[in-house]
Design brief:
- This protein has 10 helices and 7 strands.
- It is globular and about 55 Å long.
- It has a 7-stranded mixed β-sheet, with helices on both faces.
- Helix 5 packs across helix 8.
- Strand 2, helix 4 and strand 3 form a beta-alpha-beta unit.
- With 261 residues, the protein is an alpha/beta fold.
- 38% of the residues lie in helices and 20% in strands.
C-alpha cells in the first residue's frame, strides 16, 4: 500500500490507500478465534462481553466483515458496520449475505456520520484508530455511537514494539500511515473522554508477525525459501505463550474493553 497525500491533517491514511489495500479481493471471512493471531483477544472478549441475541454491535471500518461475523457467531449480536471505501460497501454486503448474516452496512465516513436515535450496545474497531493522529477524538466518535452502559472494544496492532520495527523494514510506506502508539496512549485517550471506564486492557498475543506484512512477502517466495522462513515463524508463534511475555516490545496487539458511563 503506497503512502498517499493526507485527506486531512489528522488522517494518516486516505480512502485511496484502502481502496488499493483491498483491491486484491476478499481476505478471510471466517476464522478459528483460538489461533495465535486472535486467541488472547478472543479470551478478552469472552471474559467481558455478554452473549445475547438482543444486543446490537457496530464495527467501525468493517470491510470485509470478518469481525461482524465473529460477534454474530460467538456472541449472537445483531451486527452493523460503517465502511467509507465506496467499492467495499457492496462487497461487504455480499460477504455478509454469503455467510447468512443479516447485517446493516452503513456507507459513511465516521467523521461525517451523525449518531442515530438508537445507539449500539457494543462498538468495536480492529486496526482503525491507529490511522489517526488525534486518538482521543476518534475514540470519542466511537463513544458517541455507544449506549450508556455499553461496551467499547478497541484492538490495534502494537507497532510501538518489535512488530513496528519489522513493518518499517518490510514496508516503509505502510509503516508511515500508522500512529505508533503504545497501549498507555490508547488507554489515556479513553480516560480523557471522561465517558468510559476501562474494564481490562494491555498487550496481547505474546509474539506474532501477522501485523508486520512479513507473511505476504514470504508467500511470494519460491518453495525452499518459503518453508525455511515460514516454518520457524509458525513454531515461534505456537510456543510463544509459554516463553514470551506480553510486553510492549514483544506483543503484536494492544487492546482494551471499556464500559461507557
Amino acid at each position: 500500500m503506497k503512502a498517499q497525500k493526507k485527506e486531512t491533517d489528522f488522517k494518516l491514511s486516505s480512502k485511496e490507500d484502502w481502496a488499493e489495500e483491498w483491491s486484491g479481493g476478499n481476505p478471510m471471512l471466517t476464522f478459528d478465534p483460538t489461533l495465535p493471531f486472535f486467541r488472547d483477544i478472543h479470551k478478552l472478549c469472552q471474559h467481558h462481553l455478554p452473549v445475547s441475541s438482543g444486543m446490537r454491535c457496530l464495527e467501525i471500518g468493517c470491510y470485509p466483515g470478518t469481525y461482524m461475523w465473529y460477534f454474530n457467531t460467538y456472541f449472537k449480536h445483531k451486527v452493523s458496520g460503517i465502511e467509507y471505501v465506496d467499492e467495499c460497501v457492496p462487497r461487504c454486503k455480499e460477504n455478509m449475505a454469503s455467510l447468512g448474516i443479516d447485517a446493516e452496512i452503513i456507507h459513511a465516513d465516521l467523521f461525517d456520520y451523525k449518531p442515530p436515535a438508537e445507539l449500539w450496545d457494543v462498538v468495536a474497531s480492529f486496526g482503525f484508530i491507529e490511522h489517526f493522529t488525534d486518538t482521543q477524538d476518534v475514540i470519542q466518535r466511537h463513544l458517541d455511537l455507544l449506549k450508556p452502559g455499553g461496551y467499547l472494544v478497541l484492538v490495534i496492532p502494537n507497532h510501538a514494539g518489535l512488530n513496528g520495527k519489522i513493518l518499517k523494514a518490510v514496508d516503509k510506506d505502510k509503516h508511515a500511515i500508522h500512529n505508533l502508539m503504545p497501549y498507555d496512549q490508547m488507554a489515556n485517550a479513553v480516560e480523557k473522554t471522561c465517558q468510559a471506564e476501562i474494564i481490562e486492557g494491555g498487550y496481547y498475543g505474546h509474539l506474532g508477525f501477522w501485523n508486520t506484512d512479513l507473511y505476504p512477502k514470504i508467500d511470494k517466495m519460491s518453495t525452499i525459501p518459503y518453508y525455511a522462513s515460514k516454518v520457524p515463524l509458525y513454531i515461534l508463534e505456537r510456543i510463544a505463550p509459554y516463553v514470551v511475555p506480553n510486553t510492549q516490545f514483544f506483543a503484536p496487539n494492544s487492546a482494551l474493553i471499556a464500559k461507557k458511563l
